[in-house]
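[Meeting: bench + compute handoff]

Bench side (C.D.) handed over the final construct sequence. Compute side (W.E.) agreed to return the predicted structure before the next meeting so the bench team could plan truncations. Sequence as handed over:
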Amino acid sequence: MSRAAERVEIAADNLTNATTAGYKATHGFRALLGSEATAPLDNASGPKLSVDLTSGALHNTGNPLDFAISGQGFFAVRGPAGTYYTRCGQFTRDADGRLVTANGMVLQSQSGDLNVGSGDFKVAPDGMVTVDGAPMGRIAVMGFEKPGDLDPVSGGLFSADSAAAKASDASVRQGMLESSNVSTATEMISIMSGLRSAETGQRVVQVYDDLMSRATSVFGQV
């Protein structure tokens, strides 16, 4: 029942983020091993969640503060607790001219916080940001030797257990966003399957309790 509840919870979280730009669907690690897997789902025995890093479709928004990554790689964003990684390139500009995420994390260039000022700017496919032709910095698009070292945090945000390196096969697209790669149909099926498993487990528990109650009653009369 606990595993079924976990499966429903993961699928529900994926559905919640089905419209989140750049979101990557997560799945229970046990699902990758098959239904016969018996290893406990905890961090001591292996990764609890597996992330589907398949790219989502890119669509044009026309907003110069929106970016998408074509190829592999992640935007690096800095928050109070450190650096995180995301495929969501939906940014706004703060009072200091820095590009920030919805929760205030600052987009990183290869040399620190990216500041584009208050005017118009352009982003080249290699991530170079220019204002009136003058370079302002290059957007840091980072990759990992072992994508499995990425740990989902929330809403398409990841922390990493290993050092990131510059992604070699990625390009930045200004005025575009990457769609979530969540399959609504797949997640709905997963939820229904998990609920059925939970119901089956509940019936087994009820039968077991009934049998134990009867056994106690019978032995009590002996």
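W.E. noted at the follow-up: The CA atoms of residues 211 and 217 lie 10 Å apart. C.D. will use this when planning the next construct.
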